[in-house]
């Protein structure tokens, strides 16, 4: 039975799924925008939103929280010092998913997953 099952498994075991989410969020923070499948983008969006929300606090515990997910000190500094302050007056909705055409090889729905421009 599927009662109260709320996680999107994406056809992967939990360790692969966690690695995929970390990889997608890392690339999003590095480049600002990535192209991936719609389902992967929808699954990764809450992770990116949560990290930015924590990073807005700009304290030591926020840096540690972000660093435990990203495992990269330079990227953690970029998120806390450059990305998060742009969204300090915003209460969520830091990412957007724009649907694109389907991929020719396997007919998968593609999407542009990007950080929203600061106001």
Automatic annotation (TrEMBL):
Keywords on record: Ribonucleoprotein, Ribosomal protein
SUPFAM superfamilies: Prokaryotic ribosomal protein L17 (SSF64263)
One GO biological process term: translation
GO CC annotation, single: cytosolic large ribosomal subunit
Keyword Ribonucleoprotein carried by entry: yes
InterPro entries: Ribosomal_bL17 (IPR000456), Ribosomal_bL17_sf (IPR036373)
Keyword DNA-binding set for record: no
Entry GO MF terms: structural constituent of ribosome
Subunit structure: Part of the 50S ribosomal subunit. Contacts protein L32.
Similarity annotation: Belongs to the bacterial ribosomal protein bL17 family.
Listed name of the protein: Large ribosomal subunit protein bL17
Species name: Mesoaciditoga lauensis
